[in-house]
Fold each of these.
Amino acid sequence: MTSSIGIIGVGEIASACVDGLCARPDHPRFFLSPRTAERAARLAEAHDRVEVCASNQEVVESSEMIVLSVLPGQVGSVLADLDIPGDRTVVSAVAGVSTEALTPLLPHDPTLVRVIPLPAVRERRGVTAVFPAHPATEEIFDSLGGTVVAADEAQFSTLSAATATMSAHFAFLTGIADWLEAQGWSRADAEHFVRGEFGGLATALEDPNTSLSDLIPAHETPGGLNEMLRAEWMDEDNRARLARALDHVHERVTGSSTSG
């Protein structure tokens, strides 16, 4: 595994990656940028071989691989202040910023890889999208739950769009709790029940040999209540609305329409 990883932009996802990797006794050394000082200090205190650098350039000079995890609007100004040698690997976790846009900002032509880490990397259960194929990067994220490698950047962008569904999932659960509360349950009891119902379903997703579509009949009885709600709520119109919403997100990610 890569022996030293620098992180520029120690946000929530970058922190999750460090926490997940540091669960391994043989984890790499980490060099963290000084911005977001409180979070970086927490990581350095919590884990061995994790240091906070005085500057982003020090992160670059100390690291074999540099993970760029800043906001899209910050990329230009951050990279303009850095001199990244050609023998480094830059792993960009910046959403929506293409390889074509990043390459001119890296004049010494280091190896460039894009990734989409998910919050579950902290528990080493997050599947990370990677483009292009890069064995060292894949090894790191395989240890955090697995990887899928996109054939091209257009395919990679579809997974970026798919990540926009996470808060909608929690909005769905909130809607169920709202309905229970309207029926007279306390908010605490309603949320407690919903958390138990859906938290218990997580184990069903862990078997890769069972397709998602097969999980639908496995959790309903013909003519039963689950089938009734699914048929009424997730009908053809709502499935089409979901696809259109994903098209719109994908358009924002890529800057070009996919909906025709």
Amino acid sequence: MIEKVYLAKPRGFCAGVVMAIQAVEKAARGEERPVTVYHSIVHNHTVVERLQEGHGVHFVESLDDVDRLPGGGDTVIFSAHGVSPVVRERARALGLSTIDATCPLVTKVHTEARKYAREGYTILLIGDSASHQEVIGTRGEAPEHTIVVGVLGKRGEGLADPHTVEVPDPSRLVVLTQTTLSVDDTRRTVDVLRARFPGLVVPPSEDLCYATKNRQDAVKAIAGNVDAFLVLTSTHSSNGMRLLELARAACGRAERLETDADLEALDLSGVRSVGITSAASTPDDLVQNLVARLRALNSALEVVEEGEWENIEFREPRKVAPDAPLPRVMR
């Protein structure tokens, strides 16, 4: 029987996710026609379902599908993961107004990509998947200057191996990263690249976002106290799956749950203490529901919550008309 729960802090929504969800909710209330979001606004099934069912929001993977939806739509919202200039150009060609809910920390990486491409650098973009929306968006800023490199030990289509990746000019080389990777794995990957390419430029402000690092640190702080970890995350959340991997490595056992209902399928016999954390896109009420379910199994359950919440807010994105100028893309 589980007797003690350690709640990781911080956990759950980061500032970028809060900003993105609020932007969708506000647009859904204020727009006369149905609001469309390009890709999942954040990578969490519950969030998407709540926006669909509670606010009538549509989600598409192609902007060409916007006008085919019931009632049409003339405003599209870009997800927190960011989009490539090709998507922005297509939205303008279709006459769509846009609300850019890209996390500002992702936008920072896009800005770096454009800057270094203008200066003639090859960009080694470290990512956990070439098909992740954030990687697609960042690479799209300078496609002919960018090579996507897998995190150390990560293999997949479109990912170059940091041990063997070839570059046109080792003296004009910079490394950028997806914002939601494992902190430790990313640093090891950069070390491999730096050893191979001594002239590698590493921007002074790292690309991994504060929320990713803080949530991983919180798991590390708890791991020594628990028999197992329960991680609330959707499978397509990069930061959430990195939390799951970290928790598993740190304490030997970790289980993924989409919601508290998944607890029923887990065999936790012999587990007396658990840590609980959640992805940066997971609503905290899902965590509280999980704690309540555990308390229903043991009314004497002890819950420990230590650490600090983040105190960061991002500015609300504004609506942009289809004829607004676009940032220049590097080919």
Amino acid sequence: MRDGSTLAHTQWRIGITIAQIARRWRARLDQRIAEYGLTEARWLALLAISRGGEGMTQKDLAGRLLIEGPTLVRTLDWLEGEGLVERREAPHDRRAKTLHLTAKARPLIHRIEAAATGVRAEILAGIPEAELAHCLAVLERVAVGLAAPAPPPPVAEAEDGCRPG
């Protein structure tokens, strides 16, 4: 916005809006799922295991959730303690653990999925499907841009006008 262009202002607003939507969407889901005694980290882990298929490794789950392994371990310890997840030795690597949902987890995942479906329906009600499809196409392009390595930051000029070197 320093350059005063409408494009820069629009890009700024998009960034702010995406961040606000993400926070508010998750808060709405958290509110709906709180009755099951699950934090966001816990229900996200359960859904990721459910959607990713049985036998995913802890490392793969951490990658899907975009978190570090040690952070995930605490969540998995709790889920395992509640009887929702089992860790098993990976057949291809004794050091790795694979994750498996228990029978106790399955009805809970159905309730989480139903809550998420309801929240999506509430949030997106009244928006025509064609507009949603266009929005999704744009957001997918944004996601591709974010997945690419970040360019190096611009080199700032020193106060005396000379570039560091």
